[in-house]
Structures are given as structure tokens and as C-alpha cells.
Automatic annotation (TrEMBL):
<keyword id="KW-0503">Monooxygenase</keyword>
<keyword id="KW-0216">Detoxification</keyword>
<dbReference type="InterPro" id="IPR013785">
    <property type="entry name" value="Aldolase_TIM"/>
</dbReference>
<dbReference type="Pfam" id="PF03060">
    <property type="entry name" value="NMO"/>
</dbReference>
<keyword id="KW-0288">FMN</keyword>
<comment type="similarity">
    <text>Belongs to the nitronate monooxygenase family. NMO class I subfamily.</text>
</comment>
<keyword id="KW-0560">Oxidoreductase</keyword>
<dbReference type="GO" id="GO:0004497">
    <property type="term" value="F:monooxygenase activity"/>
</dbReference>
<protein>
    <recommendedName>
        <fullName>Propionate 3-nitronate monooxygenase</fullName>
    </recommendedName>
</protein>
<keyword id="KW-0285">Flavoprotein</keyword>
<dbReference type="InterPro" id="IPR004136">
    <property type="entry name" value="NMO"/>
</dbReference>
């Protein structure tokens, strides 16, 4: 039923629908539900300590015997120098205790990567650039596949150069962090409909469209644009299997088309999130934003406390421009619905 099968064959899946790896939202249950439904479930492992990552991979394997992916971030340089007065003010307001010291909450990359290799994860995916060429050789040596995100044609070419097997073309609409790694992030703000065909023309490997794809209409469009599959994050944010706080889930379900914005204030790197008080006030104090990922680290207690108090003001609610279309369905049902709708749309598009 799918117009292109190279990606399906490569990943050994039934449907070319990838549930995006999402730090802070993906769970073994979500990953397994998607893989069991014939898509590719993916776990966002960048902020998971190596030993925990190993147990999560094993948990996924207990829940599914189908292929799945794990995603890591390219290692970041941590730096910290500014005084967090605003965070102190908000901690006092929420009675959240002292502002924590920044800690490295990502990685350590090499140890995480070693776990993925030892556990023979079928699909490795990378954000913020490719893994080192040597690492990609090691992944290929165990027979696994490498996916990585590009936000420009130049980045797609750089990923191919590094040995990546499949390009995820991430458009401007996407929720979460911009994957831009080779140009200033403003240069990588290209919409999915413009980016996917340009990358598809430039590379000979399968291209996955990501950003703003929420249902079968988006999947049909992605194929028409030259993609061989889709990666969807925001569409899975209202599924019961993920672990986002209830206040975040409700914000996704209430979100309108104009309610998201790309901002650096939660983590120190540009990411699309649902507007709230933290973004509004922090954007007016941009000189107080720490570099990635120190900002994410120093804000962690505020984000968690706000969520525990069912207060959306200070929660990092990453989501894409299509959030208004999210449906609160179990992931397997969501995939089944998208497949039925894909069949109906493609049938209705047949030329008479
Ligand atoms: C909550 C959230 C967390 C995300 N975390 C990651 C991540 O850890 N790694 C990654 O490669 N992409 C991450 N992304 C980006 C997705 O891979 C993908 O580019 C994006 O979800 C596609 O756009 P959509 O949200 O409109 O579907 C995240 C997206 C969201 C919404």
C-alpha cells in the first residue's frame, strides 16, 4: 500500500511512520506500542544515564520484538557564568527551594553510545549533527541503521558524507529542538513543504519528512513531496503512553495554530514550544539565558515544580505548529486510524 518501500525494507517495519524520539516524553510503553503497530517507535535517550538507558532498552525488548530506535544528541560543551536572578524570583514564588547548580544532564555520549552498541539497538538516530564517522562505522558493523536530522540541503549532504543511511528533513513547523548543526539556526528555518523536495532531490538515500505532520493528510503530502516516510512527535504527545505532565498534555490539547514559538529560553538552544509566562518573561531577559544545556539543567526544578502544581507557567512544553490536531488516542489506535485515513485519501485522489 505504501508508494515507496526502500525505507520500510531498510528499517524492517510495516508502515513508514516513525514516532519521534522525545527526551522527556517518550517511554518504553510508547516506543513498543508504535513498533507493535508496525511503525518505528523511538526513545529519546540523550538525557538518560547509561545504566538506565540499558534497562530502558531491555524494557522495550520485553514489550516488543519489533525494530525500534534510540536517539542521542551530539555532545555539547557546557558553560555557565550568569546569575539566575529570575529563576530565584520564580523559585520563591512557587516555594520550590533553592535554584539548583547546573549539572551535565546530557550524556556522557560515549558511554550512552557504547550501551546502544552493546545492546545492538536496531536503529540509531542523532540530533544536532552526525555521530563521528568512526561511530557510524561501528553501528554499521553490528548491522544497524543510522538516521540523522537535517534542516538544510547542506546539512543533509554533510550527513551523507558522514555515512548516515536515512535523512530526517526537519521543517520549521517541528516541535522540540531545531536539529540545525552546520549553519546559524535562522538559516535552517525552512518549512517542511519547501525543505523535503529539495533534500529529496539532493540525496539518493530515503528521506523522512518531519515537522507539522499530524495525520494522514500530512503523510500523503510527505510522499507527494518526495519523502519515503514521516517522523511525527507532536502527534504522539496526547497519547496516554508517554510521560508528559498532565498540565502539558492539556496545553497540547488546547493549543491553537498560533500558540507555539521557537525559543532558546528553556534549554539554551532554539526549540519550538507552547507559549507561556516563562517564555514571555525570559525572552525579555535574553542576556540571562545560559548556554545549552546549562539553561535546561538550572531550570529543571522550576519546570518540575510548576508541573507538579498543575501550573503551566514554567513548564517546558515542547510542541509543534500542528499541536491543535493532536488526538488523545493510544498510540496503536492512532497509527491504525492514520493508515485507514491514508487509504481513504489516496483512493479519493485517484484521477478519474
Ligand atoms: C516533546 C518533543 C521532544 C523532542 N525531543 C527530541 C529528541 O530528543 N531527539 C530528536 O531527535 N528530536 C526530538 N524532537 C523533534 C522530533 O524529532 C521531530 O523533529 C519533531 O517532533 C517533528 O515535528 P512535529 O513535532 O511537528 O511532529 C522532539 C520533539 C518534541 C515535540
Amino acid at each position: 500500500m505504501w508508494p515507496k518501500t526502500e525505507l520500510i525494507d531498510l528499517l524492517k517495519i510495516t508502515h513508514p511512520i516513525i514516532q519521534a524520539p522525545m527526551v522527556g516524553a517518550s517511554t518504553p510503553e510508547l516506543v513498543a506500542a508504535v513498533s507493535n503497530a508496525g511503525g518505528l517507535g523511538s526513545y529519546g535517550g540523550a538525557a538518560t544515564a547509561p545504566a538506565k538507558l540499558r534497562s530502558i532498552i531491555r524494557q522495550i525488548r520485553e514489550l516488543t520484538d519489533k525494530p525500534f530506535g534510540v536517539n542521542l544528541f551530539a555532545p555539547a560543551v557546557e558553560a555557565y557564568q550568569l546569575t539566575p536572578e529570575l529563576l530565584t524570583k520564580w523559585h520563591n514564588e512557587l516555594d520550590a527551594g533553592p535554584v539548583p547548580e547546573p549539572i551535565p544532564i546530557l550524556g556522557p555520549f560515549v558511554d550512552q553510545f557504547t550501551v546502544l552498541l552493546e545492546e545492538k539497538v536496531p536503529v540509531f538516530s542523532f540530533h544536532f549533527g552526525p555521530a563521528p564517522i568512526e561511530a557510524i562505522r561501528e553501528i554499521h558493523a553490528i548491522g544497524s541503521i543510522v538516521l540523522a536530522t537535517a534542516t538544510t540541503v547542506g546539512e543533509a549532504n554533510a550527513l551523507i558524507e558522514a555515512g548516515v543511511d536515512v535523512i530526517i528533513a526537519q521543517g520549521f513547523e517541528a516541535g522540540g529542538h531545531r536539529g540545525t548543526f552546520a549553519v546559524p539556526y535562522e538559516h535552517g528555518l525552512i518549512g517542511t513543504a519547501a525543505l523535503v523536495p529539495q533534500i529529496a532531490d539532493a540525496v539518493s538515500v530515503p528521506v523522512i519528512a518531519a515537522g507539522g505532520i499530524m495525520d494522514a493528510r500530512g503523510i500523503v503530502a510527505a510522499f507527494a513531496l518526495g519523502a519515503s516516510g514521516v517522523q511525527m512527535g507532536t502527534a504522539f504527545l496526547a497519547c496516554p503512553e508517554n510521560n508528559i505532565p498532565e498540565v502539558y498534555r492539556q496545553a497540547v490539547l488546547k493549543c491553537k495554530d498560533e500558540d507555539t514559538v521557537i525559543t532558546e529560553v528553556f534549554s539554551g538552544k532554539p526549540a519550538r514550544a507552547i507559549r507561556n509566562r516563562f517564555i514571555r518573561e525570559m525572552e525579555n531577559n535574553r542576556d540571562k539565558v545560559l548556554p545549552f544545556s546549562a539553561q535546561m539543567s538550572i531550570g529543571r526544578v522550576l519546570y518540575q515544580t510548576s508541573a507538579q502544581q498543575s501550573n503551566p507557567d514554567f513548564v517546558s512544553m515542547w510542541a509543534g505548529q500542528g499541536a491543535a490536531l493532536a488526538e488523545a488516542l493510544p498510540a496503536g489506535e492512532l497509527i491504525e486510524k492514520m493508515i485507514q485515513e491514508f487509504l481513504a485519501i489516496t483512493a479519493s485522489l485517484q484521477l478519474k
